[in-house]
Amino acid sequence: MIYREYGKTGEKVSLLGFGGMRFKNVDDHDECVRMMVSAAKGGINYFDTAPGYFETRSETVFGKGFAEMRKLGLPYYAATKTFESTQDGVRREIEAQLKRLDISTIDFYHIWCITNLDNWETRKKNGILQAFRKLKDEGLIRHICISSHLIKNEIKELLMSAVFEGVLFGYSAYNFQTRQEAFDAIREKKLGAVVMNPLGGGVIPQHPELFKFICREGEDTVTSALRILWDHPEITSTLVGFDTMEHLEQALRAMEGYKPRIPAELEEVKSKASASFEGICTGCAYCDNCPAGIPIPEYMDAYNQKLLNKNYKDPVGDRLKWHWNLDRAGAGKCTACGQCESACTQHIDIINRLKEIAG
User: In percent, how much of the chain has pLDDT > 90?
Assistant: First the structure.
């Protein structure tokens, strides 16, 4: 296992992390604990969950896993999150989380799911930062972190705040272009950086031909998707949501044979991404200046799910609801002015896609 320093904290975390949102059967505690212990024996020490994963049951499983790991002398870091923003709300949440997780301190505690800067301003006004600082002063959390789906300059603006020690955001070969500003801020502020959805929410392994540009000779797509992220020196850990022991073992094998690319090789792979995604929005966000206020990159990201996940019942609606906290109706504000299409470097038919999303 490779370990990297988490920003300026002095903590060394595993480059491969364990995400707790995809257990195949979260109610089979014995099997879930076996997976966590196997991960720890394989060198994984960063374990991330959230109260919204399986309606708090993931945190309960993690508590049992941490207890077993303590018995075996296996080291771990506990990471979780909160949607709450008031001091009273955060206090109630964390007290319940500490009981479920069976620990006295949360190592990395995240302000969860910042989807736009207005949302962030509201949470600040509600006292979220004062609440987190108090928790840290009391020793209930060790490091103040943030989880965000913002892209481009907005995420950079968020990360330039002096309070954060680390960030969690989605990043994969599927959306290389959307996070470069985040990496600028990570380097400047010396933040820990954990990435989620390294397999593009399943898009990458489900479409190996589309993503063959990331593969070295002899590598399968999952292995390549992980290794291409490990090639980024700014990334501290990559979270994989393991559903079965088989998938955990596959990821551990990818780490065993890993040999980093040099920076020039990594940039070459990134440059091939746009050419490989014909008709798929790559999230460059040049369209993100809609006179009607529509967050077009987010809607185009959701439309991607229709193109890539044709077997799902409602991939667009699910992506809007669970990833972006948006609904279909927002796309109906489009006035067909054409400004977004003029800015689109991929010449995507944005107006018609918005109409289709809105219904």
Answer: 61
